[in-house]
Amino acid sequence: MKNRQVSIALLSALFGLAVAAAGQVVEEIVAIVNDDIITLSQYRQYHDQTYQMLRAQLQGEEFEKQYNLAKEQMLDTMITDLLLLQQAKKKQLSAAEEVKNYVDRLKRENNIETDAQFRQALLQQGVNYEQFLKQIEEGILRQILVSVDVDRTIVVDEAEGVTYYKQNPQEFTETEEYRLRAIYLSSEARTPEELEAKKAEISGRIQAGEDFVSLASESGDSPLKENQGDLGFIKKGELDPALEEAVVKLQTGEITPWVQAKNGWYILKLEEKKESRLKPFEEVRKDIYNKIFTERRTKKLTEYLTDLKAKNYIKILRPDPLGLP
Known about the structure:
Layout: H1 2-15, E1 17-19, E2 25-33, E3 36-39, H2 40-57, H3 60-90, H4 96-109, H5 115-124, H6 129-149, H7 158-167, E4 173-174, E5 177-186, H8 192-207, H9 212-218, E6 230-235, H10 241-247, E7 259-261, E8 264-274, E9 277-278, H11 281-310, E10 314-316
Antiparallel strand pairs: 1-2, 2-3, 2-10, 4-9, 5-6, 5-8, 7-8
Helix pairs in contact: 2-3, 3-6, 7-11
């Protein structure tokens, strides 16, 4: 234990700043995690990769929100990743087979036949092959460690699943659905007199037995006329309230009177109705298991990481690496 403390003290003293012979600072230590360090350049690289990934996926306020959140957690995430990697190596876990399978899958998905071609493809993207393999291996090692130390300790038995199913029937109840077809008339495209005349004409043709589908495409307005008025299946509660009030009274095959909604007038035909139903347990067994497992895994993983940090040496030298010292 004494030698351990001396080693850590030397790291703190010698590597708080790495100095060249001329006295120029060439690297700075952000954090010490046992016998490993996180440098400022490593932090900047991690930051830039995260920034670019979020920028490619998000825009505006959502980007700013997610970026600020990631930035707040960035150093803690790097420390956690390093601790997990150290623990995986201590347990002598291996990811060689998983890395090979991962690379082989990437090659197949991108129609790459040889390792040389794969290296070249990475190089064209500015990615070093050895560094790529190292990052993949480290990521998989962390996953294997969590699987061994956390996931395998979680048990969800049949009785728990049945109890959850009985106590939460609303989660497994399918809402009533209607398959609808509509003839739509815009209120803005005609004068009130023209609109009433058009409604009367269509109603008369329906009463005369003309095909509803043909009428929807020939006499209705855009955008519904282009797909013959087909609205597909709509769940109860998703329709305009005025339209839904008319639809719920229908039997399959029946047609509503003209109904005014926010953007115009509709006649709707109920083509099919799916009644509300409680899914049987066998149908949702896997979903219930996954839900309970995920909830327990989140709690156990938090406890595991908290314990891991408490049992290892962590010294943060730059809490805000990109800010002021």
